[in-house]
Design goal:
about 45 residues; mainly alpha; 2 helices; Glyceraldehyde-3-phosphate dehydrogenase
């Protein structure tokens, strides 16, 4: 991954996080974090 692609991707992620916080009070981030923790627990079970 080139530095310019990484910068664009980081900017896009930051923009999406800001939009979620402004429009949805961060509920999308909270949902994604909870699902990610469920996935980590599931994968850890199979380890």
């Amino acid at each position: 991954m080139t530095p310019s692609v990484a910068a664009w991707l980081a900017g896009l992620i930051a923009l999406l996080i800001a939009a979620d916080l402004a429009l949805n009070a961060g509920n999308g981030l909270l949902f994604a974090a909870r699902k990610f923790l469920d996935l980590v627990a599931y994968v850890a079970f199979w380890r």
